[in-house]
Amino acid sequence: MIWLNRIKLIVMQKIEHIGIAVKDLENANLLFKKLLNQTHYKIEEVVSEGVKTSFFKVGESKIELLQATNNESPIAKFIAKKGEGVHHIAFAVTDIYAEIKRLKSEGFTILNEKPKEGADNKLVAFLHPKSSNGVLIELCQEKERNDK
Question: Each residue of 107-142: pLDDT tens digit?
Fold first, then answer.
């Protein structure tokens, strides 16, 4: 967040991660281990989203591999429609509530106007790809200990 003449400007800090939909997390982990010359640092399941994730650190950003855990998962539907590949780009934000409000006022379609719990200790919200040139955008804010 930047202050300019006492006006608070909200900026996205960095690309937090790039999400890649995969059919087989174990095989994808092996492939990315070879590609990046390192192993993943975390595997986590987000039951509410029907997804199992694996994270690789790449500089200041991350790669998130996503495997569906059920056929109704957004990842399962994505793979059925488009195949494996880049699913979303996530941006780190300092105030996800303010960023949702700002983007909505700019005309973006917000898929979940109230942040929800995501993987890797994050609060997340998504922008509909139809409002962002076909790219699913995720906003991520590090959860504080008292965030629920």
Answer: 999 999 899 999 999 999 999 999 999 999 999 999
Query: Rounded CA gap, 112 and 47, in Å?
Result: 17
Residues 125, 140: Cα–Cα separation, whole Å: 7
Averaged pLDDT for residues 95-103: 93
Q: What is the mean pLDDT of the chain?
A: 91
Q: Which residue type, as a one-letter code, is found at position 105?
A: S
Cβ neighbors of 92 (< 8 A, separation 6 or more) are 12, 13, 14, 15, 16, 140, 141, 142
Residue position matching structure tokens 């650190």? 57
Backbone angles phi, psi at 96, to 5 degrees: -65, -35
- Outline where the chain has alpha helix (H): 25-36, 74-82, 96-105
- Find all residues with CB under 8 Å of 82, minimum gap 6, and list them: 21
Number of H helices and E strands in the chain, helices first, is: 3, 10
The CA distance from 81 to 3, in Å, is 43
Instruction: Give CA–CA dist 62/44, Å, rounded.
Output: 14
**CA separation for the pair 117, 115 (Å, rounded):** 7
